[in-house]
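Aim 2 progress update. The chain analyzed this quarter is reproduced below.
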Amino acid sequence: MKIRDVLFFVWGVIAILGIIMLLFPKDGIKITDNFILYFPTFEEMFYTSKNDNDIPKIEKQQNIDELIDENKEFDKEEIKSKITPLEFPENNPHALDRFFAKLENETQTGKVRIMHYGDSQIEGDRITAYLRNRLQSKFGGFGCGMLSPITIYAQFSIKQIASENWMRFSGFGYSNYTASHNSYGPMISFCRYSYPVDTPFLTPSQPYKAWVEFFESELAYSNTKKFREIQIIYGNANTKTQLIIKSNNEIIKTDSLNSGAGPYLYNYVHSDYLNRIRFEFESYDSPDIYGISLEDQTGVVVDNIALRGSSGTVFTTTNTELLANSFNLLGVDLFILQFGGNSVPGLPDKKSAENFANYFYYQIAFLKNIMPDACFIVIGPSDMAYKEKDAYISYPNLENIINELKKATHRAGGIYWDLYKAMGGKNSMIAWVNANPPLAAPDFIHFTPQGAQIAANMLYSAIFLEYINYKNQQNKSAQK
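Predicted structure tokens:
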């Protein structure tokens, strides 16, 4: 074949491809529900759709302790420009004062409890662990807070093993076991070692036995590795339960748990700090174990309650009386609600974002109704990216969802913290994934442990700035 014929052929192919590029729909041709056929446009063929200048950079994270001297005056607005601050409702700039007052005045003689609820972004104690460590280092406290006899994911702050006869009943997502009621308790799940009795109770011939053991994780922060006070919240048992508590194979307490509807809070305080604990249960009917908390008698307790796959709209679907009584028994002072990420892919437009935010508003309003003295911080979704053709981009409706969540939070009287903004905004997830070391996973949704620590540091900085500002205002009022 002559060179001229080859050139004509090549130019002919290029011309045909050019015509296809010109005529082919930019959004592709939908072949099936899950398959869309794309063809590159001229712009995609000859220009880089994303370059380093298009993607927000991850700036060096500021340590709030380096920015603020607690004993000196500071310019709050200047500090706010260096961090991502909390956003308060316009009609209530003092929405955290009750919580801050307890931090300031009660952590030396009592406890301040924070419940951090969230989706899979916080599971395994990610984000919560760092926040807990900073708060306990500042205000006192030990232990990792509320735990379940069965864990469905690895924990950062503690290790655990348990007998094989435990069953977990969940009020969200998929569960191997289904309850005939909605009385799930504060972790929106409970565990049992015998099947629930739906008919009049008949005493079995032999009692049921089960055990669970918690022990130190080498990854945990030092404050988390030890504890002195143990709390078990439980209920719905037809018989009393014998309880043996051991540490390092030695019995340190023999006791019993009540029968009845509950909820009940069992409390035991050891004479010294422990780093390993084993609970042995024996009864003719298992109680519903809503949670086991390892903590101290004073300081800050921070519970990590991860609801994998949840949109955060589960609170109104669980038993109100049980939830209210459980929160009051535990003494919850601050709720941190970190949700929205699981809903992002299924909310395509502004109207759907508004509907979701309205539903979330009722969750906050519900919790405020049963815990009127508690404070609320809502953390919306992080940046999240999906693959479009050969590039990752932020979900197009993400900013609408965040804006609507923020409005709903303020309408309910809560405080909003914008994790999306803290990360860098649109397409920032790409930079977090490509960082060295990576700060987010290849799914372009979840943080790595390093990324979770950075996010937690930014959250702590936002909270601590407002706490110091609260202290300064209180001092000024006292001097008048």
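The CA atoms of residues 124 and 148 lie 12 Å apart. The chain is about 30% helix and 25% strand. These observations will guide the mutagenesis experiments scheduled for the next reporting period.
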